[in-house]
């Protein structure tokens, strides 16, 4: 990763902290060299604005899409701009009548230590008793909400279902699997390594986890789901998706949450599933969690209750320091993490 020239601040006595820029659109997967670090220019607040000191920043596979030259959806990031990322921080200065210093807020504030906001990008003001605050980027944030939308709202999982979840040791996958488990369903995870299968068993109560590269994956799945798969919550797409599709039961529901195994520029050819979808009366539905904001309050209430009851947990993979964010993203996309990847912006941040 290259170090960009330091930007002059309008008040060199006051540091606005570090920020991570996207230097160029990645070829395919973002590399640390695609990013640069600089010291941010201090900016005085205007009326209505607040200054937020970031505490936790979420590293998400979606950053691969956001950094791309043609993201397909969402905003195009111009090289030289601060990289987009969701974070949680405290308001440390305010010229806003309703948002006062001390409040904790959540939003797409970017890979930076401090953010000046006109408050339009503040997605939620967090409850004072939220502890730890990183929950708002995990079980009680976009991760838990994505799992909820896919497993509850779309799939309508029931105790009679046999459920398959890909990337089941990951952030969304582990919550989706636990939601299905608490419902009483028979849940089968698919993961990238034996270590991840072990995490699923010990931390998430998921005893049936298959390794996606196993040569006999199809036979293993068939023996765990002899009557077929009723709900397929897919985080990856690609060859494992193709295999699970052949094992779907009549009236099965296929929920497409993510396609990390595909090259988004050119996904390549795959088997044709039309006959399977028709013959077995399958419902196939993709979703973007951000389009389900109307039902967010109910989803958050349920996720909070289940978390308090000890039915949902999420392993956190914490990386210290904002300058490590480009490496954390690379490692996440390669699957070299367990659970939710978070940047602890300041080592002093409590947990
Ligand atoms: N639809 C929505 O609104 C929404 C919202 C949030 C996230 N998502 C999507 O949900 C998925 C999971 O997100 P997350 O934050 O929970 O990430 P994550 O699962 O914690 O991390 C990504 C995982 O993907 C797996 N993976 C990486 N390359 C792969 C490949 N070539 N083939 C198969 N698996 C591969 C790895 O798991 P293994 O090592 O276990 O294989 C890796 O750990 C992502 O695709 C993300 O884009 C969608």
Cofactors, ions and other ligands in the entry: NADP nicotinamide-adenine-dinucleotide phosphate
Given as residue ranges, the uncertain stretches (5+ residues, pLDDT < 50) are 2-13
Biggest sheet descriptor: 7 strands, mixed
Top-tier CATH class of the largest domain: Alpha Beta
Outline: globular
CATH topology call of the largest domain: Quinone Oxidoreductase, Chain A, domain 1
> Averaged pLDDT, please?
93
CATH homologous superfamily label of the largest domain: Medium-chain alcohol dehydrogenases, catalytic domain
Based on the coordinates given, report the CATH architecture of the largest domain: Alpha-Beta Complex
The total domain count is 2
Write the SSE topology.
Blueprint (H helix, E strand, L loop, with lengths): L1 E2 L14 E5 L12 E5 L10 E9 L3 H6 L19 E8 L9 E4 L6 E4 L6 E2 L16 H13 L7 E5 L4 H13 L2 E6 L2 H11 L4 E3 L5 H8 L4 E6 L3 H8 L2 E9 L17 H6 L3 E4 L9 H13 L7 E5 L4 H9 L6 E5 L7
NADP nicotinamide-adenine-dinucleotide phosphate binds next to helix 2 and helix 3.
Q: Could you explain the architecture of this structure?
A:
- The chain has 351 residues and is an alpha/beta fold.
- It is 25% helix and 23% strand.
- The chain has 2 domains: 2-138 and 314-344, Medium-chain alcohol dehydrogenases, catalytic domain (Quinone Oxidoreductase, Chain A, domain 1, Alpha-Beta Complex); 146-291, NAD(P)-binding Rossmann-like Domain (Rossmann fold, 3-Layer(aba) Sandwich).
- Strands 4, 5, 6, 7, 8, 15 and 16 form a 7-stranded mixed sheet that branches. Strands 11-10-9-12-13-14 form a 6-stranded parallel sheet, sandwiched between helices.
- Helix 9 (325-333) links the parallel strand 15 and strand 16.
- Helix 2 (142-154) crosses helix 8 (296-308).
- The site of NADP nicotinamide-adenine-dinucleotide phosphate (NAP) has 27 residues, from helix 2 and helix 3.
């Amino acid at each position: 990763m290259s170090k960009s020239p330091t930007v002059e601040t309008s008040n060199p006595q006051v540091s606005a902290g570090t920020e991570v820029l996207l230097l160029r659109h990645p070829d395919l997967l973002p590399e640390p060299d695609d990013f640069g670090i600089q010291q941010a220019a201090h900016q005085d607040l205007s009326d209505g604005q607040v200054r937020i000191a970031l505490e936790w920043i979420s590293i998400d596979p979606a950053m691969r899409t956001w950094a791309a030259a043609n993201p397909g959806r969402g905003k195009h990031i111009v090289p030289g701009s601060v990289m987009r990322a969701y974070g949680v921080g405290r308001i440390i200065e305010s010229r806003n009548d309703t948002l006062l210093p001390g409040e904790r807020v959540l939003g797409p504030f970017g890979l930076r230590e401090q953010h000046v906001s006109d408050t339009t990008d503040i997605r939620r003001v967090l409850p004072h008793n939220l502890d730890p605050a990183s929950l708002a980027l995990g079980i009680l944030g976009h991760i838990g909400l994505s799992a909820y939308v896919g497993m509850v709202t779309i799939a309508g999982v029931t105790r009679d279902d046999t459920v398959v979840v890909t990337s089941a040791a990951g952030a969304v996958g582990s919550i989706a699997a636990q939601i299905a488990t608490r419902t009483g369903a028979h849940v089968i995870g698919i993961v990238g390594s034996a270590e991840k299968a072990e995490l699923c068993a010990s931390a998430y109560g998921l005893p049936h986890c298959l390794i996606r590269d196993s040569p006999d994956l199809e036979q293993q799945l068939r023996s765990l789901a002899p009557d077929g798969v009723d709900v397929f919550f897919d985080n990856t797409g690609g060859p494992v998706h193709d295999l699970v599709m052949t094992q779907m039961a009549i009236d099965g529901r296929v929920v497409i949450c993510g396609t990390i195994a595909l090259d988004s520029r050119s996904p390549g050819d795959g088997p044709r599933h039309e006959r399977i979808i028709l013959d077995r009366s399958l419902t196939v539905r993709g979703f973007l969690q951000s389009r389900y904001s109307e039902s967010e309050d109910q989803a958050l209430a349920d996720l909070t209750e289940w978390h308090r009851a000890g039915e949902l947990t999420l392993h956190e993979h914490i990386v210290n320091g904002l300058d490590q964010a480009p490496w954390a993203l690379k490692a996440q996309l390669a699957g070299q993490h367990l659970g939710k990847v978070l940047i602890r912006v300041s080592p002093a941040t409590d947990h």
